[in-house]
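Bumping my old thread because nobody answered last time. Still need a sequence for this structure:
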């Protein structure tokens, strides 16, 4: 059976940011520097970037 994970959204950023600006990636990098395994994913329904953390769930 595959591992189950719960995704926690830490922050949302609009996809239409200024050219050359990557606020979601910068935020995720700051979280990673603090030991948080954050990553960026795209939410197509809301046209935004989400910084998330996957947390294993117990069955």
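Sorry it took so long. Here it is:
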């Amino acid at each position: 059976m595959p591992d189950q994970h719960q995704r926690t959204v830490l922050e949302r950023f609009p996809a239409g940011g200024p050219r050359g600006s990557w606020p979601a990636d910068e935020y995720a990098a700051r979280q990673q520097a603090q030991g948080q395994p954050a990553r960026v994913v795209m939410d197509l329904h809301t046209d935004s970037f989400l910084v998330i953390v996957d947390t294993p769930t117990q069955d």
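The longest strand covers residues 5-14. Let me know if any region looks off to you.
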